[in-house]
Amino acid sequence: MNLIFDLDGTLINSLPGIAESLNRSLSQYGLASHSIEQVETFIGDGSRTLCERAAPYADEDRINQLDAAFKVNYQELWRSGTEIYAGISKLLEELAADNELSILSNKPHGFTTEIITNLFPTVPFHTVLGQREGISKKPDPSGIHEILKLAYQANAPTYLIGDSTVDLTTAKNAGIKSIAVTWGFEPLSDLAELSPDHIVHTVEELKKLTSNL
Questions:
Q1: What single DSSP character describes residue 8?
Q2: How many whole angstroms separate alpha carbon 46 and alpha carbon 108?
Q3: CATH code for the domain of 47
Q4: Same domain, 70 and 125
Q5: Looking at the structure, do residues 91 and 195 belong to the same domain, yes or no?
Q6: What pTM was computed for the model?
Q7: Which among 70, 195, 196, 209 has a CA at the least distance from the CA of 131?
Q8: Element (H, E) at 68
Q9: DSSP 8-state assignment for residue 197
Q10: 83 - beta bridge partners?
Q11: CA–CA separation, 5 vs 159, rounded Å?
């Protein structure tokens, strides 16, 4: 079975690091900062969109500057502002024994690979994809298609596991099944509206579900 995981809000709580990096960048350009609760609503569509949502009246040049500043600040701050959700590492190691695991994130590709390498060194992910220049991000299904093209068993049952409506829409667009997790950054009501194939509320529920698929 192919299990494709989102990263932020699904495997890791990266909100503190993202919020601190964003607010530092905004301050560098004299722009208003946001509460961590507000920043949570900006996450999910890549770093540039994060900056656009944080500074809705800024022009394109300023957004480019903010995005560049955010990436510099996040490089410094992500380690102290990121934690793995409890039970996730053990779950991934167990799932890897019988399934092909991959990552598909809208986080910039460099950060995605760096975080996976540092936080999950013992998990044998087959493919790790973040947001890359010139490649459409989620909810475009291109990333799913690329992962399946590289998969050892592309015709095996495939699930996208994520915490956001972007993830669920991506799964629909790719014609694969979805599992919504509710410990991330979007409310259950929003996830349920998209009718995912499964909804789980704890890591233990996800473990039980994936063992019976």
A1: B
A2: 7
A3: 1.10.150.240
A4: no
A5: yes
A6: 0.95
A7: 70
A8: helix 60-77
A9: S
A10: 13
A11: 8
Q: How many CB atoms sit inside 10 A of residue 124's CB?
A: 11
Report the 10 Å Cβ neighbour count for 61.
8
Residue type at 84 in one-letter notation: I
* CA distances to 130, 131, 181, 198, 212 from 136, in Å: 10, 8, 24, 26, 33
Within this chain, do residues 59 and 100 fall inside the same structural domain, yes or no? no
Task: Split the chain (213 residues) into runs of 10 and give each run's mean pLDDT.
Answer: 98 97 97 96 94 96 97 97 98 96 97 98 97 95 96 92 98 98 97 98 97 90
pLDDT in tens, 135-150: 999 999 999 999 999 9
Count of residues for the chain? Answer: 213
Domain interval for residue 159: 2-13+83-212
Domain count, the chain: 2
Strand order in the sheet with 198-200: 127-131, 100-108, 2-5, 158-162, 177-181, 198-200
What tokens were used for 22? 């964003």
175 shares a domain with 144: yes
